[in-house]
Amino acid sequence: MKPQSAAASAAVSRRYMELPRYLRVVTGQAELAETLTAVARDLGFANLCVVSGAGATAGVAEGLASGLAQLAVSHVQATGDGRDVAESLAAADELRDADVVVAVGGGKTIDVTKLACELADVPVVTVPTQLTADGIASPISVVRDSAGHTQSMRARMPIAVLADLDVIAASPVASMRAGLGDLVANPCAIRDWRLAANADRESVDDFAALLAQTATDLVYATGVAQLGAEQPDRDFLRRLLEGLVLSGLAMEIAGSSRPCSGSEHLFSHALDRLRPGTAAHGEQVAFGSLLAARLHGADWRSLQSFLRSAGMERAASGFGLSENELIEVLEVAPSTRPDRYTVLDEVDEPELGAAVRDVLTA
User: Fold this and answer.
1) Residue 223 to residues 28, 80, 239, 243, 263: CA-CA distances in angstroms?
2) CA–CA distance from 351 to each of 96, 181, 188, 253, 296 (Å)?
3) Of 185, 209, 262, 349, which is the most buried if we count CB atoms within 10 A?
4) pTM for this one?
5) In angstroms, what is the C-alpha Rg of the chain?
């Protein structure tokens, strides 16, 4: 074997990544504003641009901005989840003049703002109002292109994540179930990752995989039946938040979404194309994880029971889609990201059909 050069060896042994410095969980608007002020001071930021959606998150953003009396603050609303929205936001004077951008909202607002900050090279702090996905602390933004198709793009990793449990607790329980669905996808993604490594398609970062699995374990250790009863307590919400943040860190360490996105996410992307509006992203990847677990020979029945106990019956039973419709989605799924090798590259249509029938009839 040819020996590595010194430069190549250094590239392998040293990695550079951007990780958040702060994860602060608070209770109430006043404490949120106080904490953001302290974080901004620590980092030397004096000019903030707060970005929100145009709906309920605008009120949260305005309340936060009003509590930042010691800082210069502008407020911009970003509507939509398209790449063009992120590009327009990146070009806005308010964002370009800011020392840091504060993204207040759910998954769409945070994804668009992270991408805008990557384009404009401005730091970003995320303030999630819902726990719907792991994008709150990841280097990936999922946005729509001009054709309306979702695409995953490199985005700015947040320098801080600040969460107000009062706001999150008031969000719809359905959004929390979606966040749970995104987390239970991690073991599936890791299996696909190791499958790709066994096929000599890529190598696995064991630490990133460990972190992604740990993120899922955090919520498996809780009483998810609270979600089924629509009465989640603060301990569950904190664990869900921490799990989603750990997933984001795993992606930054891996240098891609690989530890948290495999065949189950390809299934969701294909479902968006063929049956748009079927369900929330997290619900779709949860059902995709169920099908993939069956294809991998993993314990899919326990996962199905887990989803049902969390009140995710639609995600556990295929959203009312027929066997043929689901097979079609699975067949299209690999084309949504041809570079991502998964279990779907190793099975044929009869195997897909058998897996779908098992899951639908369980």
Assistant:
1) 25, 34, 11, 15, 27
2) 52, 24, 18, 34, 11
3) 262
4) 0.91
5) 20
